[in-house]
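Can anyone check this?
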Amino acid sequence: MERLNKTCGFIISIILVIVLTGCVSSQKLNSLLSPLVEDKLPDGGTAISTSKMNSMSPPLDKNAPPSSKKEDQLKNEILPEISAKLLLANEIESYPENVTYSEVLGFPEYIIGTGDVLEITEWKSTGPNIITLPIRHDGRISFSFLENIKVGGLTPTQVDDLLTSKLEGFVRQPRIDVVVKEYKSKKASAFGEIKVPYPGKGPGFYPLSGKTRALDFILSAGSFTDQADLKKVVLTRRGKLYELNLLKAMEDDDTTQNILLENGDRLLIPKLPQFRRIQLADNQVYVFGEVSLPGKYTFTGDANVLDVISKAGGPRVGAEMKYVKIIRGTPDNPVIVSANIKRLLKKSDLSQNKRIMDGDIVFLPRSSMAVVSNIVTKVAPMFAIAQQPGAMWSLYTSGGGLRWNTGASVKLKEENKVTDVDSRLLNP
């Protein structure tokens, strides 16, 4: 009986614990769900907001297939951002108005534009008649019987066909030839590690004469130096920057890197990293001519012609600032760059403040007035002797005359100045 009472008591205790635990769990559940209560039911109950229940739902199984809604959300939010980055990095935009050529009968031909010069040959019974015509600002020309013919945007072959068809109303079986004599409407530029093999080549702007790829353009500008980093060539087009790997273009003939250039493109060829570190060290420049302290000077980083002239103590009074010369290049192919410092200072023409490169020689010539003044200074003592022969004879005789073996030159000392005088001028 006693054992039965203990068993009943143990069972009752377990039941009480279960009941109490259920009550506590119910209170916690109500406290968690109370913020979610938004809508009142007709019978006075409450309904839980579906959106908030979804926000509290456990994470989905990674292996489970996503819902179509979730997949659409990923496409709308993530893929456009990635696509934009890939487009900017890997696709170079082309602008039709800047394209330099057009395919005619399967061959690329230059597109004529404002400023170009055409050479039109009209064949007559008496022989060829060659006429040179510049394209006007409106893209038109006047030729023979024809006035204001629109040729801008056409190729030479198309212009030939157009003029021939229009001349048929005036001439029987007209025959003409059209070629571009001067390319001026489309240009590109190359800067950085470009060689200067001879004057007229090197960094700068060059015309585009048709279908031209980046490597061909660089080679025509003078080619690249041994220090060029061809893996990181920078193309600037319409304000956007693109990185080209021209080394890959040469090795693999990769035309996605060796791009077709358009009007206004700019190529910048940087130095290889090891040479960029060397460039940060001191560079040398030699300054001579009409400066206060001519000699060799060093500079770090970038410098211009005014910097080095200032380092050399500034120009002398007789310096000709209009014709400052910068000599660079190699002994076999020297290059002379002119800088008009007078124009820079008077008219604020910053293009005259030329950039100085390592090893440059800067020369400030003497002005013509300074040359004349120097000649007058040297000749003046001779005029003084000619104007005062009596004084010179008095000095000659008071000194006891000259021995028979005396040289023809004597020195005249007056006011701490020593002047060479021909003794034959002292004879009475």
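Reply from J.R.: I decoded it. The first strand starts at residue 37 and ends at 40.
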